[in-house]
Amino acid sequence: MEVKTSLLDNMIGVGDMVLLEPLNEDSFIVNLRNRFDHNEIYTYIGSVVISMNPYRSLPIYTPQKVEEYRNRNFYELSPHIYALADEAYRSLRDQDKDQCILITGESGAGKTEASKLVMSYVAAVCGKGQEVNKVKEQLLQSNPVLEAFGNAKTMRNDNSSRFGKYMDIEFDFKGDPLGGVISNYLLEKSRVCKQPRGERNFHIFYQLLSGASDDTLMKLKLDRDFSKYNYLSLDSANVNGLDDAASFRTVRNAMQIVGFMEAEVQSVLELVAAVLKLGNIEFKPESRVNGFDESRVKDKNDLKEMCELLGIEQSVLERAFSYRTVEAKMEKMSTTLNVAQAYYARDALAKNLYSRLFSWLVTRINESIKAQAKTRHKVMGVLDIYGFEIFEEGDNSFEQFIINYCNEKLQQIFIELTLREEQEEYIREDIEWTNIEYFNNAIICDLIENNQNGILAMLDEECLRPGTVTDDTFLDKLNTICAEHQHFESRLNKNSKFLTDHSLPHSCFRIQHYAGKVLYRVEGFVDKNNDLLYRDLSQAMYKATHSLMRQLFPEGNPAKVNLKRPPTAGFQFKASVGVLMKNLQTKNPNYIRCIKPNDKKVAHIFTDSLVCHQVRYLGLVENVRVRRAGYAFRQPYESCLERYKMLCKKTWPHWRGPARDGVEVLLTDCSVPTEEFAYGRSKIFIRNPRTLFTLEERRRACLEDLATLIQKIYRGWKSRTHFLLLKKSQVVVAAWYRRYAQQNKYQKIKSATLVMQSFVRGWKARNILRQLKYEKRCKEAVTTIAAYWHGTQVRREYRKFFRANAGKKIYDFTIQRIMQKYFLGLKTTTMSPMDNTWPAKPYGFLEGAHTQLRRIFHLWRCKKYRGQFTEEKKAVYEEKLEASEIFKDKKALYPSSVSQPFKGDYLEIQKNPKYQKLNSAMEEKVLLADLVNKINRANGKGSPRLFLLTKSNFVLADQKTGQVKASVPLPDLASVSVSTQSDGFFALKLKEGSASASKGDFLLSSEHLIEIITKLHRIGTTAADRDQINIDISDEFLVQFKQDKVCVKFIQGGPKNGNSAACKRKNNRLLEVSVPSP
Ligand SMILES: Nc1ncnc2c1ncn2[C@@H]1O[C@H](COP(=O)(O)OP(=O)(O)O)[C@@H](O)[C@H]1O
Ligand SMILES: [Mg+2]
Question: What's 905's DSSP letter?
């Protein structure tokens, strides 16, 4: 749960002066002191922050603090500058209201520090990112540069800003910084030439001399020794806690980050060196004829060096220090300068040079940090300007006058804006506007700035007036014109009431500022307002080759001679203040009022008189009054209800309805007088701080009660919880203990029982065991006896079967099994005699039997096969067998005949009627009838003949007629000749001297040669009365034709006419048969 805090928590004194009771200067200061002593350096007046300079670092600017104050409401936490910065930043970002932060206070009060705190806080809480961080860095780094050139050590502050500064930081719609614009006001340039005792010139001079490298110093023609320079005060050149050399490096670095070019930095340093050189130029008088003294440069070395540095012709500058050209009505007159005038001219040049350089720096920085985007920006302005400056003993001069004028203006817009805001809030909250009585300082502003008769206008008038003009004539003029003004006091006034006022010297006038009376000494007013620089000098400067120098003195350009006097310092300041005020008026103001607690710049010291003085001239009590004029305190209903709800039973602890009703109920219940508060739209307005404190007091008491109540309930709860815990533990312990005791007891009984049981069981068991052992022994004895007896019996009976026969039996059995298996394995073999397959032998010892069996089986199979044959078929096969015996491997024709069955009667002689006669001529059964070719011996051509074979002879008959041509009894046949080749030729050779031989042998050819020859041979074998017919197989044999013997020769030749062999008569003794090659 988020804890709601409030400014009112743990408050030291009052955190908001609005709540101060009673309200007067003393109580105001007591409250400040009280808070200061408790390290509370910030206090509010409404939304204004009063900041006391602690002069030591407090741990209240840590990143944690930033986080703490981030996004919190203003009155939620104790007063802090971060609360103001956060409020301003958030309303800028979220409500799109441009903001300005006005920081005032006297020198050393902490204004510059405060402005830096605000900037660093905003930098910490706004957006992040590469580009944004660069912008932030540039904005933050512009500070060291401006501080080096614009700050100096003074009696009051070691780092006192000697210029007013207003910086606009620009943000985009998201609240990310885009860039910024810096305006500077009124640099205290007199410091360049002269410093009060104990003070220093601007930091940069010392930083340059201590921090620059030897090389750089040589280039700038400078010496490290401060004492060599007239413009540097020596008694406080070294300041405790300031390291000029380190600062120089910081400044150089910052310049680089801001975006200065190296050459620009160099130019700037050259001008700084030139100022130092200028201070060293001294003059001596030289008498002239006309009796006047004319000034001359004493030692020209510095002048020479300076001219070298800036590229100015030495003589030009020298002349400018001795003469002055006055132009009047188109006429030029040259007058000489005396020594005093020369010094005046020198210092004026130095001051102008430096202050212009400073303004140039600001412009240059602005160039770098200006926002790039052209979109509409939200702006947060931070104004760090002198507060009222009042020196005692009337030491106030033109500068103080100007500064106080500025503060007067600031006070005016403060009042205007505060009242406006107050009024707006009343309207917003719908509360009746109670008119607020306050002092409006518009009248004082008018006294100073009125265009006709304002002090500044008269000063300008005086300066521009021809004739002798002195500070006294100016005072006279004031005395006449402002005499009647109620805020103007002067001794020489016609107004008689100051005639005897000795606190008011004659050369002074006094103004009653809103913050108190200030006495101004008129001395120097005219001079300072004129801020005169002789034209000869600016022209000399313009002639420099140094480009930055020329840029700083544009009026020295002879082409642009302007006879009009430049605007006076007062006029310029008034104009810039006017612009500033206009600017501020468009913005939502936030005030930081800085106060310094002591003059010694030390911590822990609070000087009442000093603080009182500041409180007075800052108009702080006045401020509280304005703020309190209507209702002192206001608070949103929600937070009011949240804070005080415990004061009423109806609102405690929760109020369910609208907060406003709750507050109403609450206040009525607390019986707060009705005139003490008013109900706004969203806020309750409380008229008197006392009412608030009463509520606070009651709240505190109530909180104590509540605390007691909470304590009581908590303690009760805690004790009860503790008790319950104890009780629970006790039950657990008791339970465990009981269990343990019972367990023990049980274990004892159990073990006793076990002992007894075991004894009894043991005794019983032993009895049984004994019994059983006895029985067992009896049984064993019987068994042993029986076994032995049976053994004897069996052995006696079976001895004969054992051992002697067992091996053989087993062997036989085994063999039997093997054989059985073996035989069964043979079973698959087929019955075809052609089948050659036979199982592999299973055992070596069966090898013989295996081959035998194979043979036997084969024979048996063949026998079986043969058994199927009839007698005729058998004869056929026998014939085939015989053919094989005769021709196999002898004649090439044989293999083709194997597959042809021997038909015998190819002519079907019995059936065919054609051969009827022939058939009947045959006495015996015809064994073979076929058509053959009878080869004619004359030409080797064949003629067809019927060839018939019986048991006793062979017949050749005419094919057509069937008439027998020759019949040869087989006994006359001597031999048969055939070739070895695949032809069908055969010769039937007759026995010489036989009856048939007369006709000669027969040379025949037949397709059935094998069958014919086989049959012939068979007949020869079967006939017992005859010899074997010789079968002669050769490729060359003789054939007896009638008388001659002709040789028949077989040759292998290509087939000429078909496949059959062809016979040709070669000569008388040779018949050649060509057989086609196989
Ligand atoms: N909030 C602060 N915490 C610590 N020291 C501070 C604080 N404000 C100012 N100082 C000290 O006071 C000195 C003067 O402050 P500065 O801001 O320069 O004064 P001013 O600008 O008002 O002349 C600083 O140098 C610093 O030492
Ligand atoms: Mg300052």
Answer: B
Whether the CB-CB separation of 383 and 508 falls below 8 Å is answered with no
Q: Mean pLDDT, to the nearest integer, of 858-883?
A: 84
pLDDT tens-digit map of 968-983: 888 888 888 888 888 8
Burial of 1015 (0-12, 13-18, 19+ CB in 10 A): buried
pLDDT for the residue 2: 47
Backbone angles phi, psi at 297, to 5 degrees: -70, 135
Ligand nearest the Cα atom of residue 165 = 2
- Ligand 1 atom with least separation from CA of 387: 22
Report the run of H or E that residue 217 belongs to, with start and end: helix 214-219
The pTM for the full model equals 0.65
- 717 has a pLDDT exceeding 80: yes
Which residue, 1016, 1018, 1027, 1031, is CA-closest to 948?
A: 1016
The most distant pair of C-alpha atoms in the chain lies apart, rounded to whole Å, by 219
pLDDT greater than 60 at residue 98: yes
Gap between the Cα atoms of 372 and 708, Å rounded: 62
Give 118-143 as a DSSP string: HHHHHHHHS--SHHHHHHHHHHHHHH
CA distance 840 to 818: 15
Residue 684's identity, in one-letter code, is I
Question: Which of 108, 113, 91, 109 shows the shortest CA–CA distance to 100?
Answer: 91
Distance CA(147)–CA(251), nearest Å, equals 9
Calculate the alpha carbon distances from 405 to 450, 578, 612, 813, 952 in Å: 12, 11, 21, 151, 185
Query: Separation of 1017 CA from ligand 1 center, angstroms?
Result: 162
Spatial distance between the Cα atoms of 42 and 36, rounded to a whole number of angstroms: 8
Whole-number Å distance between alpha carbons of 329 and 1078: 160
Q: 């003004």: which residue's tokens?
A: 485
Return left, alpha or beta for 803; rule: phi > 0 is left, psi -120 to 50 is alpha, else beta.
left
Structure tokens given for 27: 């109580």
List of E strands, 337-405: 378-384
Residue 856, classed as helix, strand or coil, is helix
Instruction: Identify the residue whose C-alpha is closest to ligand 1 atom 16.
Output: 110
Q: The tokens 């070596």 sit on which residue? A: 844
Active site residues: 107-108, 112, 157, 160-161, 387, 389
Measured CA to CA, the distance from residue 68 to residue 413 in angstroms comes to 32
Atom number in ligand 1 closest to CA 601: 12
The rounded Å distance from CA 9 to ligand 1 centre is 28
pLDDT tens digits for 522-581?
A: 988 998 888 888 888 888 899 999 999 999 998 888 887 666 778 888 999 999 999 999
Distance 237 CA to ligand 1 centre (A): 21
Give pLDDT, residue 739. 94
